[in-house]
From TrEMBL:
This is YciI family protein. It holds the Pfam family YCII. It comes from Micromonospora cathayae. Belongs to the YciI family. SUPFAM superfamilies: Dimeric alpha+beta barrel.
Length: 110
């Protein structure tokens, strides 16, 4: 099956994932099972440290904070296997979110 990235964008908070409501964190624990019920599979997933720990690099210029400035920041991502973009999008709709959204993007294959 093809692979897709599900990128999770949440409101910027000082503690990042630690600031999410407990019910959202609990929903993340159930997320892999729900994906399998839809016939997909998580290949890997990572939660990112708070956006304040990031550094942006443009050539020789280094800035503190995330590369893109916005109210919402990239908080983490999953790599999943799905039949096609419609299947990946259906899986992405199950992603537990407190106040942001997700982006689904196909991964290039070698």
């Amino acid at each position: 099956m093809a692979q897709y990235a599900i990128m999770i964008f949440e409101s910027k908070t000082p503690g990042g994932w630690a600031d999410l409501p407990p019910e959202v964190m609990a929903a993340h624990e159930q997320f892999p099972g729900k994906i399998e019920e839809l016939g997909g599979k998580i290949v890997n997933g990572f939660a990112l440290e708070p956006a304040g720990t990031a550094r942006g690099v443009r050539g020789e210029v280094v800035t503190d904070g995330p590369f893109l400035e916005s109210k919402e920041v990239l908080g983490g991502f999953f790599v999943i296997e799905a039949r096609d973009i419609e299947h990946a999008t259906a899986i992405a709709k199950l992603t537990p979110i407190a106040s942001g959204g997700v982006e689904v993007r196909p991964l290039l294959s070698a």
